[in-house]
Amino acid sequence: MFVKGTGKGLDKINDFYICKYPVTQALYEKITGENPSAFKGPNRPVESILAEDAVMFCNLLSKKMGLKPCFSLSSKCNFEASGFRLPTLEEWKWAAKGGVKSKGYKYAGSNKSQEVAVWGEDETSDVGTLKPNELGLYDMSGNVAEMCFDESLNRVCNPSGGCYCYSEEDCEIEAEDNPFYDDDEEEEESKLADWIGFRLVCNGKDFCDTGEECEEKAVAKKVEKKVNNQVKKPTKKPAKKAEGDAPKAKKAPAKAKETTSEAKPKKTTTKKASTKKEEAP
Description:
Layout: E1 2-3, E2 16-18, H1 25-32, H2 51-64, H3 89-96, H4 113-116, E3 145-150, E4 155-160, H5 187-191, E5 196-197, E6 201-202, H6 214-230
Parallel strand pairs: 3-5
Antiparallel strand pairs: 1-2, 2-6, 3-4
């Protein structure tokens, strides 16, 4: 989704694009060939990953989409590059609040946590099962806490948004960020926690048109290519017989070929009433 920035002031935030959903397990596995998540489900958010894994995923997806990767080998971020990256904490909070469309809600999209946040549960849920916020973003509160990037320290910083196993208060937009780097001895364990995921952003240069969604445009191109490859060329009809020609023996009709080789979609289940799922970049 396109997010208009603050436009002025000391805490200026430039315009940027942010994906509707946290990165799903289906997308992560498609790009990396792996799915380390503790709570398996193609439309659930990926979790149990290192900060370096999120950075690597951003670069891999950028290359596949023909974009310039944002992260260097040392995980420093080039914010001018056209590829995918993690949002800064300021960008994340601005988007969670609804940007210029903000109505001042306590949670991302509502003052009632049960309308927008998965919290107090034993495991994650499929993305997009609850209401979006003012910008059309899902799961900004609850489900998984989302990694952000600290521009001043040039590293991944504390996740935001609360998660499925935390309290209602932890899912508030202005809640204190969840610990990530506070204890060096527990750093590795905390980074692999099953309550931490991430969401993609990009600056839109050379890729998105104003107001369009990065992930939807990419998916649309793939779908169009797939459909075009499945379209069969029309078969030629036999020429009409001239009068007086001897009748030919009839051949057994050829077995009709299937018009598509596409596999049937897998069924997914959710614990709560769900809306139609969409797969995010």
